[in-house]
Design a protein that fits this description.
Largest sheet: 5 strands, mixed
Number of strands: 10
Number of helices: 13
CATH superfamily of the largest domain: Periplasmic binding protein-like II
CATH architecture of the largest domain: 3-Layer(aba) Sandwich
Radius of gyration: 23 Å
Order of helices and strands: HEHHEHEHEEEHEHEHEEHHHHH
CATH class of the largest domain: Alpha Beta
Distance between the termini: 55 Å
Helix content: 40-55%
Shape: globular
Oligomer: single chain
Strand content: 15-25%
Number of domains: 2
Structural class: alpha/beta
Length: about 325
């Protein structure tokens, strides 16, 4: 009788445990640098494929309104993580904003000068005699003088027209400018969406301008207080990037599945395919995403101090801007 009662008790306990709800996933808000475009595909793909859920994360993806605004939101803990231009984040951090990059994804700069294929602008020499559309004070325009120096061009070799981001696009689309300064996977796709025409891009990185670009950032206090969550988020994001690399069209489709007005499948796919080569440098070839080198970050800080308006004290400790402590180790 005692054994029977014990057996029944054990059975009841297991039955009760089986109907208890699973522990709730951690709600995480990721704010992007801008309205959605192809570069953002891995986040949507990771969510759609359950990669974040497998790490106990309920991910909400919010569009942004510029890297500076997203950096401010993360510093103020309005968002848990941000996906931003890391040099932009550096400007805020060196002024005291409590923010750090927990993973640098784009280790090669997407900055480019681009124009319609029919314009036949393929190399710096082809820019001579042309009109270039710029946005004053943006990151590309700040680095533009270095590109000119590296390629032997002078400002007298071409004309410029200035305006905000949309004005710059319109100038090329309407023929008021021959090319613009933009990101190879962003503005080029916007131009193609608007006109159906392909674009040639002259990438700054091909001429020795070695800078990082986009990465994941978080509030420093949040990171310290939520180390396990940060590790799980970076593990999931690393896996999401690796999975998306193998399925660019599927990754692009996940954007449209979440946001039907997020673009066109052709240019979202092409934009993401143009992003993938930016994930690694020759030094990180074969490594998992986000494994940026210390030298790459130091070079970026030095260039930003000289050309990008970053406070010179940033050179005292480039490692203060990023950490690799929360990245997964080993192979994919």
């Amino acid at each position: 009788m005692i054994r029977m009662i014990a057996a029944i008790s054990v059975a009841l306990i297991w039955t009760a445990l089986s109907v208890l709800p699973a522990s709730a996933a951690d709600k995480v808000v990721l704010m992007l640098n801008w309205y959605v475009y192809g570069e953002h595909a891995p986040f949507y793909y990771g969510k759609a494929k359950g990669i974040y859920a497998a790490e106990g994360i309920d991910l909400e993806i919010q569009e942004g309104r510029g890297s500076a605004a997203t950096t401010q939101a993360v510093a103020a803990k309005t968002a848990n993580f941000g996906y931003v231009d890391v040099p932009t984040m550096m400007r805020a951090a060196v002024k005291g904003a409590p923010i750090v990059a927990t993973g640098v994804l784009l280790q090669t700069s997407p900055m480019s000068a681009m124009g319609f294929v029919e314009k036949n602008i393929k190399k710096p020499e082809d820019i001579k005699g042309k009109t270039v559309a710029i946005t004053p004070a943006d990151s590309m325009t700040q680095i533009w003088p270095l590109f000119l120096k590296k390629t032997g061009l002078k400002e007298s070799d071409f004309q410029t027209v200035a305006g905000d981001g949309q004005t710059k696009l319109n100038a090329v689309i309407n023929g008021q400018a021959d090319l613009l300064l933009g990101y190879v996977m962003d503005q080029s796709m916007k131009i193609k969406d608007a006109t159906g025409k392909d674009v040639n891009a002259i990438k700054f990185a091909d001429y020795g301008i070695n800078m990082v670009c986009s990465g994941v950032v978080a509030n420093t206090d949040f990171v310290k207080a939520n180390a396990d969550l940060v590790k799980r988020f970076m593990s999931a994001t690393t896996k999401a990037v690796e999975a998306a690399e193998k399925d660019p069209k599927g990754a692009a489709q996940s954007i449209l599945d979440a946001n039907p007005k997020g673009g066109k499948i052709e240019t979202l796919t092409q934009g993401f395919e143009l992003t993938i080569p930016l994930y690694r440098t020759p030094e990180t070839k074969g490594k998992r995403p986000f494994q940026v080198t210390d030298q790459n970050m130091t070079d970026t800080v030095n260039l930003m101090v000289e050309y990008g308006g970053l406070d010179a004290k940033a050179k005292d400790n480039p490692k203060a801007f990023y950490t690799k402590d929360y990245l997964p180790q080993g192979g994919s």
